[in-house]
Amino acid sequence: MKQRILVTGGTGFIGSRLVERWWQQGHDVTVLTRRPHWAQERWSGMVNTASDLAQLEGQYDRLVNLAGEGIADARWSDSRKATLRRSRIQLTEQLVDWAQATDQHFSLVLTGSAVGFYGGFAGGDSRQLVTEDSLSGSDFSATLCRDWELAAEPLADLSKRSVILRTGLVLGPNGGMLQRMWLPFQLGLGGVIGSGQQMLSWIHLRDYCRAIDHICDSDLHGAVNMTAPIPVTNRDFTKVLGKVLHRPTLFPMPSFVAKLAFGEMSELLLQGQQALPAQLQKSGFRYEYDDLGRALEDIVSVW
User: Fold this and answer.
1) What is the pTM of this model?
2) How far is the C-alpha of 47 from the C-alpha of 41, rounded, in Å?
3) Cα 187 from Cα 200, distance rounded (Å)
4) Residues 6 or more apart from 274 whose CB is under 8 A from it?
5) Which domains are assigned to the chain?
6) How confident is the model at residue 256 (pLDDT cuts 50, 70, 90)?
């Protein structure tokens, strides 16, 4: 059935794929963006755009809130932290105010978050398993995710169903964290970061989009870990990526170098989570790419 879908973060690495997917499925998609002209050009006018909530008209069936400045785009100064919080929490609060003022009644609300909700675990400690029932952590990433989720709670009262997307490392061509790693690994300059024992909870972009469709068609609600079922260590990830690219991985980044180079943001590199997708698996979702090697081979083939 055709749905009216409002998307924030629709021009990003993940959001743009979802917008294209839903548009191709015949849905009426509106993207709230600071770059409406760019979005109009990208989708040849087949997607509606708005630069302000006041421009939106009528009722929407789905609200998909993925907006947020890239957490790894810049060193975490106090001002950068404020920007990261504002781009997620303040916008979500504005969405709540708009939805209440316009008497929206959604069939589904999808709100972005991340596996950073559980806090970072260093080295061998990151082998601690976490599921959607696990408690939140206390570091900056965890606090950011927790407060983002709390800001979205009032939307549950305006929706038949509300889902929090706790997203892991999304792997796909020409974007995301893999794009940052691509050049150094292509040049043979990649290597293990820190101890290499920190766990990476990842998911192929195609499986991410398929999982979103699965959520839309299911009765899932609450938090959902958007990850593949087999997390890997940084050391194993490095080894597999080097093998797929046919490049050596002989240039490690010791912990102290990461801390000097990235400051507090180095926790994204030196810590990890072993977040299992208990909700998706319990609901019967089937992955196309549950093996990292196959996932990376597919991505390399289309990069």
Assistant:
1) 0.96
2) 10
3) 23
4) 121, 126, 127, 128, 129, 130, 199, 201, 231
5) 59-173+202-228+274-288 (3.40.50.720)
6) confident
